Amino acid sequence: MKIEQRAAVYPGSFDPVTRGHLDIIMRGSRLFDKLVVAVLENPEKTPVLAERERVDLIARAVEGNPRVEVRSFRGLVARLAAELGAGWILRGLRSEADLAAEMPMAISNRLAGGRTVETVFLPTRPELSFISSRLVRDIARHGGDLAPFVTPPVAKSLRKALRGGGAPS
Ligand code: PNS
């Protein structure tokens, strides 16, 4: 019997990638043969970290995990999943508020993707459930300790980007 490769897409803004995201990536990579971390290039938003840097920081953090691939994307995540032949979209859940926000996305992605893509939710580890990229950016802007939230390379890039006034387009 031939077992097909099970591939999933883990989409996000990752501005910046947090310890919570990295935990979801690590645990998600055990559920699938291939996990593609997809960094959203959103022309309507100005991120703190440039798209290239967001991709590189994740790639550095997952180095050595052969199941994980990191790339950027534009447009619909459902379309990306179809293009990659990925049957699943992975998202982390920190709270009921996350679930409420994620449900319409999961349903829309299924419908937009021709009903070929299902969303799988992983509950965040409780000790990381307080972390969000928005909080991290705020703490970084005000010079707080970033160690509980992000890895040292991410903290360094974030501080540098904020000193320099944000991401180049
Ligand atoms: O890290 P975030 O900001 O919570 O991630 C949101 C993301 C990137 C998953 C979502 O905005 C997204 O999938 N955008 C791509 C456009 C799309 O597919 N929209 C329809 C479903 S929301």
Describe the structure.
With 169 residues, the chain is of the alpha/beta class. It is 41% helix and 18% strand. The chain has helices spanning 19-31, 51-61, 77-84, 96-112, 133-141, 152-163, and strands at residues 7-12, 34-40, 68-73, 88-93, 118-123. A five-stranded parallel β-sheet has the order 3-2-1-4-5, sandwiched between helices. The radius of gyration is 16 Å and the shape is globular. Residues 11-13, 40, 76-78, 105, 108-109 line the site of 4'-phosphopantetheine.
Portion of residues in beta strands equals: 15-25%
Quaternary state of this entry equals single chain
Beta strand count: 5
Terminal-residue CA separation: 49 Å
**What small molecules accompany the polymer chains?**
4'-phosphopantetheine
Work out the radius of gyration: 16 Å
Backbone structural class: alpha/beta
Overall geometry comes to globular
Q: Indicate the mean pLDDT.
A: 94
Widest beta sheet: strand line-up: 3-2-1-4-5
**Succession of helices and strands:** EHEHEHEHEHH
Low-pLDDT segments, ≥5 res? none
Q: Helical proportion?
A: 40-55%
